[in-house]
Specification:
Blueprint: H1 23-37, E1 44-50, E2 56-62, E3 65-67, E4 75-81, H2 85-92, E5 95-102, E6 107-117, H3 120-129, H4 132-139, H5 150-164, E7 176-181, E8 185-190, E9 198-203, E10 212-216
Antiparallel strand pairs: 1-2, 1-5, 3-4, 4-7, 5-6, 6-7, 6-8, 8-9, 9-10
Bound molecules: flavin mononucleotide.
Subunit structure: Homodimer.
Protein name: Pyridoxine/pyridoxamine 5'-phosphate oxidase
Binding site for substrate: 64, 126, 130, 134, 195-197
Length: 218
């Protein structure tokens, strides 16, 4: 005989994701919990892009800025090589989706919306905030293009390292930049007992516009 349905569990009746919450503030709360509990890279997120023809692709990147002050209306920023495969997708289709899955917390956040490129000043500041070796590694990489032999990359690293070692900084390549996603949809998902999970979706029509929210069937 199967066990009775868990309907008498009073704790399951209420959503733990507050209605009417500010999704940026809620993101901050969950992100702080992830930074305290994840063994590494709590800021790692899957970034989904699509070609002009709507063929999707996804890969991990690091969240390097977020919140209401990020751009007017708030946003989520990552940095990359704009000539990479993802960069080509973004140039053709300035929209993306982000996904955080914090396994130790059993929580997921999904964020969707249009992208804007960061200013050259912002890209410079972030590029030069990274260690010298990271600047060299990025400047030497034709990200996503075929590399005939690994030594070709290492030779280029050596060359760039030697050329800029005295200054201790590498000029930011023009194609190395950042993008900020302006959310139109943010969804919070949390694991609950008996697989009766909890989801709340926040939607808005424009950057800075009012959010509406609803629970979703899990
Ligand atoms: C945890 C993690 C974090 C990463 N962070 C970045 C990042 O911030 N920027 C980036 O360009 N690539 C990052 N990468 C590498 C990307 O996943 C990917 O391999 C690379 O950007 C090329 O993707 P593309 O060919 O789709 O453009 C990261 C990979 C992992 C596993």
């Amino acid at each position: 005989m199967s066990s009775p349905p868990p309907l008498d569990d009073a704790q399951l009746a209420d959503s733990v994701i507050p209605a009417g919450a500010d999704p940026f503030a809620l993101f901050d709360e969950w992100f702080a919990a992830a930074q305290a509990s994840e063994p590494n890279d709590a800021n790692a997120m899957a970034l989904a892009t699509a070609t002009a023809g709507a063929a999707p692709a996804v890969r991990m990147v690091l969240l390097k800025g977020h919140g209401r002050e990020e751009i007017p209306g708030g946003g989520f920023t990552f940095f990359t090589n704009a000539e990479s495969r993802k960069g080509q997708h973004i140039r053709a289709n300035m929209q993306a989706a982000l996904l955080f899955h914090w396994k130790s917390l059993r929580r997921q956040i999904r964020i969707e919306g249009p992208l804007t490129e960061v200013s050259p000043e912002r890209a410079d500041t972030y590029f030069h905030s990274r260690p010298y070796k990271s600047q060299v590694g990025s400047a030497a990489s034709d990200q996503s293009r075929p590399l005939p032999v690994r030594q070709a990359y290492l030779d280029r690293v050596q060359e760039i390292w030697a050329a800029h070692e005295a200054q201790g900084m590498v000029p930011r390549p023009a194609h190395w930049t950042g993008f900020t996603l302006s959310p139109r949809r943010i969804e919070f998902w949390i694991d609950r007992d008996n697989r009766l999970h909890d989801r709340r979706e926040f939607l808005r029509d424009s950057a800075g516009g009012p959010w509406s929210d609803t629970l979703l069937y899990p």
